[in-house]
Task: inverse folding
């Protein structure tokens, strides 16, 4: 069965990080939830700005094209996606994360957490 990103029932079991070699980084085309702590680590938000007002911080980050949305009850942001899908931090040619050491917590946890824990949308070529 062909892998379809938006249909986790088509995803493949994730058994080994070597599966990531040559993958088009489908996991980096899913919406990325980020906390204020993630954004501070990424260097796009200061601790002072976060403490003052996350709503105000969202307005600036949205204007700068870094985040797409903010959910006040949870304090979580969604990173902007380029070309409708790619994560803001995904390199379009290498298909590698440009902020790997500082990447958000959800990226570190995937695919232990995600739409289908233990599975990923692995594909060798850009669809
Ligand atoms: S921050 Fe990096 S690892 Fe996380 S989705 Fe974006 S490109 Fe992928």
Result:
């Amino acid at each position: 069965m062909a892998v379809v990103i938006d249909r986790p029932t088509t995803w493949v079991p994730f058994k080994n990080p070597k599966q990531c070699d040559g993958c088009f980084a489908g996991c980096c085309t899913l919406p990325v939830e980020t906390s204020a702590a993630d954004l501070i680590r990424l260097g796009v938000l200061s601790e002072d700005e976060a403490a003052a007002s996350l709503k105000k911080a969202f307005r600036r980050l949205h204007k700068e094209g870094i985040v797409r949305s903010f959910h006040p009850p949870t304090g979580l942001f969604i990173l902007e996606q380029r070309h409708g899908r790619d994560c803001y931090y995904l390199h379009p040619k290498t298909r590698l994360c440009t902020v790997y050491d500082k990447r958000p917590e959800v990226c570190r946890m995937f695919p232990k957490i995600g739409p289908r824990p233990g599975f990923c949308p692995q594909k060798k070529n850009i669809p």
